[in-house]
Amino acid sequence: MFLKLDFDGACEQARARIDLSMDAYWQRALIFCQSKNEQFEAASLGLDLLRESGYAPDAAFVTLINGMSGYGEAALNSMPNPSPLLVAMLRNMGIQTPRNALDAANPALLRLIAGAADSDIELRLVAAEQAEAVGALPAASVGALYAQVQFTPEERANPISQSAAMDGPLARAILYQAVTAETVPTARAEVIGVALQRAQEEARFSTMARVLLPAMQALEARPGFAWFAGKAGRAYFASGRWEEARRWFDVALAQRSSNVEAQQAAIALWPLVALTGEESEVDPGMLDVWWQAQGGATDPGAYHRGGLLLTLLAALGRNIAAEQWDVLLAGPLSEPSAVASPALQYALRGAAADGRLGETVLLALLGLGAGGPENAGLNTLGEAVAALRAVGLDKDAQAVAVEAALAGGL
To answer: Which end of the chain is more exposed for a tag (fewer CB within 10 A), N or C?
Structure first.
């Protein structure tokens, strides 16, 4: 109810529950409701009782209650890991949410902050992008918020050059507006390419791809757009539109002998095509071409990308030649990334082997951790993908693999 800003309903619940339980949460909720109804003496007494009972509320709560009661300025510069009650209090008082409230906010709070029409637009954009990334907000809602940002006529006249001087979501917003305003297909594709590249650099590629999906779908996958195939294909893979992504891969493949950009696109898209296919054998020729394009020893990240791809392919049941693994022995022989505990890995293998689907999914998610496939160690990632596949969740295993591949630079 607090997340929905249903204060009447929330306060009714708080008053009913306080008679049944003296839990500190209900006491804090009641204190807020009393302050909201200008029952300042009762609220002050409630704060004193909380302190005396050993459940002293956090400083942010006290600051806001005192502000509501007229005992001081309700100014907050920081609010790490806020509760729904605290964010609702901010909304009730018309106070801006501190930036660090987004660092550990849960999806519902992110959605609430994104929808706060009276808040700073850049804060709302950051919250909306994070909420979309975890499935708490539709991509269309992020696009609608991008469209609300006000830019000067000079900025709108040169959105690409202007975006280079902007930070974060504002740059994505002006590029989004440029994409939706552009009616010439070639020019639209160029702006989409810039927007996707900027989003890739700032770890917002998948969200931007889903936001721009309607605009991309207006562009036909044909030879004349082979130069755009790489960006379009990756965006469609990020959006879960694998068949549409493959159409762009086919265009690049058909034009690779006469178009350098198409050749590069075909090589770049091949790992994602291989991960989402049904073939048990990996094309050794394409794998060799892709590996050569990585730069090998000249690129420190090449071996990690190679290890990521082979790990994901093997976890999906693809046959990898021993010679392909041997190539990676020339690179780093240890991975610094997070690894699930041995106990969790043991439990995951057991659940998958016995076909316990729900338990397998839960343990796989726990293994991947709060950071998801992007931050999981290669062994942990491979175990999770293989376990999902073992219990018949082939498409889900591939989706996790694609998410990890895109995040890992494939």
So the answer is: N
Contacts 24+ apart (CB under 8 A), 140-146: 140/211, 141/114, 142/207, 142/211, 143/176, 143/180, 143/211, 145/114, 145/121, 145/173, 146/172, 146/173, 146/176, 146/177, 146/211
DSSP-based helix, strand, coil % in the chain, nearest 5: 70, 0, 30
Asked if residues 358 and 391 have their Cβ atoms less than 8 Å apart, the reply is: no
Alpha-carbon distance of 169 to 175, in angstroms, equals: 10
| Dist. CA 234–CA 205, nearest whole Å | 9
Q: pLDDT tens, 111-165?
A: 888 887 767 788 889 989 999 998 889 999 999 999 999 999 989 889 999 998 8
85: closest CA among 115, 116, 112, 46? 112
Distances in Å between the Cα of 193 and the Cα atoms of 19, 178, 188, 213 are 59, 12, 9, 12
Closest Cα partner for 285 from 276, 295, 277, 293? Answer: 293
> How buried is residue 299: exposed, middle or buried, by Cβ count under 10 Å (0-12/13-18/19+)?
exposed
Distance between CA 64 and CA 60 in Å, rounded?
6
Long-range own/partner contacts, residues 5-14 (CB < 8 A, 24 or more apart): 5/88, 5/91, 5/92, 5/112, 7/33, 7/36, 7/88, 7/92, 10/88, 11/36, 11/37
Q: Which one, of 198, 202, 280, 193, lies nearest residue 233 by Cα?
A: 193
Summarize pLDDT for 344-388 with one digit per residue, the tens.
Answer: 999 999 999 999 999 999 999 999 988 888 888 888 999 999 999
The C-alpha atoms of residue 39 and residue 46 are separated, in whole angstroms, by 11
